[in-house]
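ugh ok fine here u go
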Amino acid sequence: MNNETLLYDDGHHKCIMFSLEDEEHSNYSLSVNQFLIIQNDAAILIDPGSAAIFGELYDAISAHIDPSHLKYIFFSHQDPDVAGAIDQWSVATSASLVISNLWVRFMGHYGLMDMGRIMGLEDHGAMIKFGNDFLQFIPAHFLHSPGNFSLYDSRSKILFSGDIGAAVASPQNLNKRVDDFEEHRPYLEGFHSRYMASNIFCRAWVECVRRHEVEIIAPQHGSIFKGEVAQKFLSWFEEVEGGEEQVATLYGLKR
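structure:
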């Protein structure tokens, strides 16, 4: 099975999706995606995942660029399927480790010793220059983590959305692109209704995203949304009620 997908390449700027899993424990783990953006001789790695895939991902990246040229490693939030190997990446590279300020103090529990390597993101996010272009860290708080960010790449117009857009069990994961949003939607509904905190956060995120020209939405789990399908996803996500509705039902609260 091919676990590498080229999302963008204009000769100077390239975006690659890897779909590497802990095959030894595949029955108990989630399908995950990792992403690499390269511009000339600099790169950023996005959501590199757990210690179980560190070696395989390091080798996969090495086929495209010397890992010593990684300038940033971005962790959208604190979960182990995102940041579990942060200590190994800190040793293997000299990259700045980018994560919400909310989670900096927790990274020692993953074995990270050099906290000075971390670039902590304030709640409002940040924009950093990347070659001739920029990377925008878009707040995605409470979707599902209270300290959470998506990443927008201005050159490729790809939004790396983390757990937003995740589909764990979709058969479309095999081709890595959603062609029919309505066919794919049932695989989104259970996860998003449980893990997204409230519709107010969904709407706020979509409003921020729509300030940018987005051609592809690439989540950490499942398949990508491209073109018109990406816009359909945003329109759908804008109406997601999230866990607030489930909690009210669970506790018999009046809304």
